[in-house]
Amino acid sequence: MKPTQYTEKVKEHFKNPKNVGEIKDADGVGMVGNPLCGDMMQMSIKVSEDGRLEDIKFKTYGCGSAIATSSMITEMAKGMTLEEALKITRKDVADELEGLPPIKMHCSNLAADALHAAIQDYLQHKERGEIGPRAKAEGAFNYDVIVIGGGPAGLTAAIQIASRGLSVVVFEGKSWGGVLSTLYPNKKILNFPGLPENTLGRDFVTSLLKQARDLGVELKNEFVNEVSTDKVVKTAMGEYHARAVIIATGTLPLACGISGETEFSDGDKGVYYYVTYPEKFMGKRVLVYGNGEQALESAQALENIADKLTFAYKEKNLVGSDKAIKTVKRSDRIKLLANTELVKIEGTDTVEKVVLHDLGEDEDFELVVDKVVLAVGMKPNTEIYSKLGIELDDRGFVKVDKDQRTNLEGIYAAGDLTTDLQLLVVAISQGAAAAHRVSEYVQKQKGF
Ligand SMILES: Cc1cc2nc3c(=O)[nH]c(=O)nc-3n(C[C@H](O)[C@H](O)[C@H](O)COP(=O)(O)OP(=O)(O)OC[C@H]3O[C@@H](n4cnc5c(N)ncnc54)[C@H](O)[C@@H]3O)c2cc1C
Questions:
Q1: How far apart are CA 425 and CA 191, in angstroms?
Q2: Which of 71, 102, 113, 262 is the 20 to 30 A CA-CA neighbour of 119?
Q3: Where are the domains of the chain?
Q4: Domain spanning 139-252+380-445 has what CATH number?
Q5: pLDDT tens digits, residue range 360-382?
Q6: Among all residues, which ones are annotated catalytic?
Q7: Tens of pLDDT along 318-337?
Q8: Which atom of ligand 1 is nearest to the CA of 152?
Q9: Is the pTM for the entire model greater than 0.85?
Q10: Could you tell me which residues are beta bridge partners of residue 272?
Q11: Ligand 1 site: residues with CB under 6 angstroms?
């Protein structure tokens, strides 16, 4: 099979996937991901009294193979005993689909792992005598607390709330773990007190997710479109009511606003803000444009992947941590262009070249490239709150007090959308502080 060829069966399951969705009150939920490829899978299962898989549903964020394998395994495993289902291997799923491209075998063929994780989740809950989520909200409320954003701040908040016995859901619109899994899943986390030196972003995310799931936090892969002051949260799948809301939607990359940016950033045409899928840059001529940590991280992530890597920035010097600057400067695979401004991006269907301006010589020059990574900074992600009336500061960050309270009653905020400090340790401590204050608020409302 060619590296990119899909069988008819894969195409069929991709185009018409079976059993998509989420089982309400599932007996077990399994979530696995391959942050390198960006694939995330969630399987929920219902187990019959005689120990068979009565129902299986999946939600997968990923490529054609990821969706096809998820769909296929739900068909294969329905009706099986748990023991039988635990024996299904990745190879069995690929065989049933009449093969997968070799590159997808390890990358996107995670459906068996997700099903096994759901079964293990069920078995653990059963052993503890608690099938389904631990805490339930009462009355008109679906949850005690809704957290918007499944990055480090949101997941920490949810873990803390669940450990206080309240019911909590986290809505994540893209990729669990936020910046850590969207930008550079293979990046090592720096400066986090007590964390082993070489901990990767993706491993940290995996353990946060496991902790959340083990505590009964409900995790929903749904983008929140609207929040109201009466704590009603709307997604494409439904409307959810809570006593309190924590907003932890982080940051978004800043646009450069140059010609060709919008045209080629839409639909994989060669302009990116993240290096989530390093394989897309394999053997390509790449320009990284910007300065600071985000740009330095991008250059380092592509150093041994791109065929030719140019790193251009407007300033005379690189800005960022000493270590990252030294690494980039020392690399003989990265060509540095200081004092250089990106003027436009050009091409027919995809990016073919860029026009740069040498600020020292005051002249334009062209560079032939296939891909451009724009890393000029991040801005607080507050778009969905424009109608809510939440107070922002003059730089667009959500204003909070020392207890992470916003100006709206029962609505709290935590993490990168509230501060330009933008450190994991800060996001996590804000998430924890918000959780404790929210829990007090909810308990008071309930009359405790
Ligand atoms: C390149 C780079 C390298 C970094 N390296 C380090 C480091 O080494 N050490 C360190 O301490 N810090 C580092 N940081 C900073 C750290 O990653 C952030 O401070 C942290 O991720 C912030 O967490 P957060 O939860 O506030 O936001 P995020 O991580 O941005 O998560 C927010 C989440 O909310 C979701 N979301 C947004 N809108 C919606 C919506 N409407 N509905 C549902 N979900 C939504 C997003 O999809 C995202 O998953 C780095 C940051 C960058 C950019």
A1: 8
A2: 102
A3: 8-127, 139-252+380-445, 261-376
A4: 3.50.50.60
A5: 999 999 999 999 999 999 999 99
A6: 37, 107
A7: 999 999 999 999 999 999 99
A8: 25
A9: no
A10: 373
A11: 148-154, 171-175, 178-180, 183-184, 189-192, 223-224, 248-251, 293-294, 297, 378, 381, 384, 415-416, 422-425, 427
